[in-house]
Design a protein that fits this description.
The complex is a heterodimer of chains A (about 160) and B (about 650). Chain A has about 160 residues and is of the alpha+beta class. Chain A has helices spanning about 5-30, 40-45, 130-140; strands at about 35-40, 55-60, 70, 75-80, 85-90, 105-110, 115-125. The longest helix of chain B is centred in the middle third of the chain and has 33 residues, at about 350-380. In chain B, about 55% of the residues are buried. Classes of the chains: A alpha+beta (about 160), B alpha+beta (about 650).
């Protein structure tokens, strides 16, 4: 091979190795770091999908009148999709937009007593926004009303 | 009245853009200086009318003219003036007008910087303006059909709906304009690349014209991303600065590609290497900007950045995106075989460094794109809802950035085309030594020990010391440091800036301490080396909010250091609550305190973080951007010198 061809071959091999390595890394990382979203009904129907200790996200509406706090750090509330509900416990700072009757997504694990121990709670960013997963969960449970919470309000 | 004026201005801008496109392409095809001049005139005119529309909208906001739809929807008389002004782009419609304004600025700049008297170059510039005009037409039609802010309301409401309180922050004045200056600025490089592909005598001349615009866009994008990250840091109350949110990724991807672009442009302009690759990168960079615009504006992703969602808009941007990616790529596929091959280079050369840079940056952008789009694809295909979290990005992007950081100081040391790698490594001996000392120092003092943290510190110092070594080597002595060409300084600043960012990121993620507790007035809590004592909370009235304001005394080693006042604000108009965290910084470290909600019995939840080196993240970004400014300044100075040949002789040689 001429030096020029050699260089091209070396270049092509480097490129393939780098691209392949990155792709392998990406696939590997994706497998381990994907978080699934389940609605309360998903959990009630398929509890085997969420064994104790598996981190996942649950979402729905914060049930009206379910928010409880006392002197301690921990707060409790119930996430519902209208059909089923999941009790949630959380020790941390709730997002500014957290409110009863509004959409919420919590990340965490289920404990033995069926309570969802949230490590992170996300609420919608503004009054026009409902987490898309929550909209979907409400639609599937048949408790979604068009125009709810001003979705698509001003367009 | 005002509304009609704005709409009219947009229509006139559209008409002039059509002229600009026609004159730009046909003038270049016929080689007619007169038609090409007409294209440049139309570009300036179109810019003037877009600016008129923009300032008309701003006027309507400032005067609270609620007969204009966008104003009624997003403003309020009680809003402070600065948020009336920045509120112009705090919504979808207004932000698209800002987008157009910045596109107009770049088109006008291309028209104004056209060198006189060079036929081939004039044709290149003319075609580039034609492409700019096509982009402007697409987005003007988009605005007029789907996102017109000037729609009239009759009768006008007495009061507006107000602005999302999260956006009522000085950050809104800086973050979007800077980000758009970056995003949209990449259109200039894109247009010149497309113009070069249209030109039969294809050479690397387009790079010379496009490079300053790419540098300007990169600098603005760097500042815009940094401003957004700083805003999120102080306003969201999580003590974090980067969340790998899809919307953040949408801005990081064009930045990575733009970084690759300004490097490969350097090689193409200097030695003629990577000719076709640079063309591809210029197309890719703006395409990533458009992908970002699509992801953020279409409502595919929901976040604070997506305002009202309308599927019609998403489809429209998707169409623009599709055309602007496929058209130039087709052109490229047709032209590429006729391109002269890039200039050869040895393994030990600066080109190799740039090759490594380009490889790692584009692959990083590709992995981020995968992580961002994977949940969307999976949802559309199988209805499975997932999210890809930070661990994915840490596992994929961090190793690549680490490799990049290892290579970065080597590039500038090596010469173009061929170099002696032993001499290069020897020249960097002080850089190696500094990195080694940093590693040992971190091993000795940093707790807890973390491999990732040690790596970040070592590489951060390697970047900073390596850049300084390069400057010192080029200058030879301290006094000659100021005489170095601007290019050497800009490289050193940009590279060292990234090193500073690395230190900040390591400090604020690996060595942060956090605490959360319920404290009643008089009680204390500890975070890091500090003790916080809640003294009292009170109700205070702001201009358009009421707030719970805490007074917290900060003690260290029993001594009072300061009193801070984190707030929780409640906006009655928008019925929303925001957190005003309190940050006490020593530059070396941030104490970050958030007042959360109340508990029974008079207690309050207080969350506190100590983030060592956190300010370095944004200081480092400023240093990087300074590198961009120095490069631009050097270009302007060189142009001025070239314009006055008689002066050039009397100046000292660089």
């Amino acid at each position: 091979m001429t030096p020029k061809k050699q260089r091209r071959l070396a270049f092509a091999i480097t490129l393939l190795l780098a691209g392949g390595g990155a792709a392998a890394l990406a696939v590997y990382a994706l497998q381990d770091n994907v978080l699934f979203f389940y609605s309360p009904t998903d959990i009630a129907d398929h509890p085997e999908k969420v064994p104790e200790g598996r981190v996942f996200r649950v979402g729905g509406l914060v049930e009206k009148g379910s928010f409880k706090r006392d002197k301690g750090l921990e707060v409790r509330f119930i996430v519902t999709d209208g059909k089923n509900a999941v009790p949630v416990a959380f020790s941390g700072v709730l997002p500014d937009l957290f409110r009863e009757g509004q959409g919420v997504v919590a990340m965490g694990t289920r404990s033995r007593d069926g309570i969802f121990q949230a490590s992170e709670v996300l609420a919608k960013h503004d009054e026009k926004y409902m987490p898309p997963e929550v909209v979907d969960a409400l639609k599937r449970s048949g408790h979604w009303q068009e125009g709810q919470n001003g979705q698509g309000g001003n367009s | 009245m005002i509304g009609e004026l704005g709409q009219l201005a947009l229509c006139l801008a559209l008409a002039l853009s059509l002229v600009q496109a026609f004159a730009g392409f046909s003038g270049a095809a016929r080689g007619s200086a007169r038609i090409m001049a007409m294209g440049r005139g139309a570009a300036l005119g179109s810019f003037v009318f877009i600016a008129l529309a923009f300032f008309t909208l701003m006027f309507a906001y400032v005067t609270s003219d609620f007969s204009v739809w966008a104003v009624a929807e997003n403003s309020h008389t009680a809003k402070p003036l600065i948020y009336k002004i920045s509120g112009v782009w705090g919504n979808h419609e207004g932000s698209m007008i800002l987008w157009l304004l910045i596109l107009g600025i770049y088109s006008a700049a291309i028209a104004m910087t056209q060198p006189v008297g060079h036929q081939a170059n004039a044709e290149l510039g003319s075609r580039a303006l034609g492409v700019q005009a096509l982009i402007a037409i697409a987005f003007l039609v988009f605005v007029l059909l789907t996102s017109d802010p000037f729609v009239r309301l009759y009768p006008p409401p007495f009061e507006g709906n107000g602005l999302n309180p999260l956006l009522q922050d000085p950050g809104l004045a800086f973050h979007p304009p800077l980000l758009y200056l970056g995003y949209v600025g990449l259109s200039a490089a894109f247009s010149f690349a497309a113009a070069a592909l249209l030109d039969k005598r294809n050479d690397a001349a387009w790079v010379r014209r496009a490079r300053p615009f790419a540098t300007a866009a990169w600098t603005a994008l760097t500042l815009g991303i940094a401003a957004g990250s700083w805003w999120a840091y102080y306003t969201l109350g999580w003590g974090g600065f980067w969340f790998w949110d899809p919307v953040e990724n949408a801005s990081l991807m064009p930045w990575l590609i733009a970084t690759a672009l300004i490097h490969s442009m350097m090689a193409t302009e200097r030695t003629g290497a990577f000719k076709s690759w640079t063309l591809l990168l210029a197309i890719a960079a703006f395409s990533f900007s458009l992908i970002g615009t699509f992801l953020v504006r279409s409502g595919v992703l929901n976040s604070v950045h997506s305002f009202a969602n309308d599927p019609k808009r998403g489809m429209f941007i998707l169409m623009i995106l599709f055309v602007s990616i496929t058209a130039p790529l087709t052109l490229f596929a047709w032209r590429a075989p006729k391109l002269t091959p890039g200039a050869p280079f040895d393994l030990a050369s600066r080109e190799t460094g740039i090759l490594i840079n380009n490889l790692l940056l584009t692959v990083s952008a590709a992995t981020i794109l995968t992580g961002t789009l994977y949940p969307l694809v999976l949802d559309a295909a199988e209805g499975i809802k997932i999210s890809v979290g930070p661990p994915y990005y840490t596992a994929t992007v961090i190793p690549m950035l680490a490799l990049l950081a290892i290579a970065m100081p080597l590039g500038p040391i090596f010469l173009w085309r061929r170099s002696d790698w032993r001499a290069g490594l020897y020249a960097l001996r002080y850089g190696f030594a500094a990195a080694l000392v940093a590693l040992l120092a971190a091993l000795a003092i940093a707790r807890p020990l973390s491999a990732l943290g040690l790596l970040a510190v070592t590489l951060g110092i390697w970047l900073i010391a390596g850049s300084m070594t390069d400057l010192a080597r080029r200058a030879g002595s301290w006094r000659k440091l100021t005489l170095l060409p601007s290019g050497a300084w800009s490289v050193a600043l940009a590279h060292a800036g990234l090193g500073v960012v690395a230190l900040g990121v390591a400090g604020a993620t690996i060595w942060k301490s956090e605490a959360i507790a319920v404290v009643a007035p008089g009680q204390t809590m500890n975070v890091g080396a500090y003790t916080l004592r809640l003294d009292s909370t009170e109700r205070v009235e702001g201009p358009n909010y009421t707030a719970d304001r805490a007074s917290i005394t900060v003690l260290s080693g029993g001594k009072v250091i300061t009193v801070i006042h984190p707030e929780k604000r409640s906006y009655p108009v928008e019925q929303q609550v925001t957190t005003q965290s309190s940050i006490r910084t020593t530059v070396i470290s941030d104490l970050y305190v958030v007042l959360a909600d109340a508990r029974e019995g008079g207690g309050w939840v207080v969350r506190a973080y100590v983030n060592p080196l956190a300010p370095f993240i944004w200081l480092g970004a400023l240093v990087m951007a300074l590198g961009g400014f120095v490069a631009l300044g050097g270009r302007v100075a060189a142009r001025a010198r070239a314009a006055r040949p008689s002066m050039a002789v009397s100046e000292p040689a660089e």
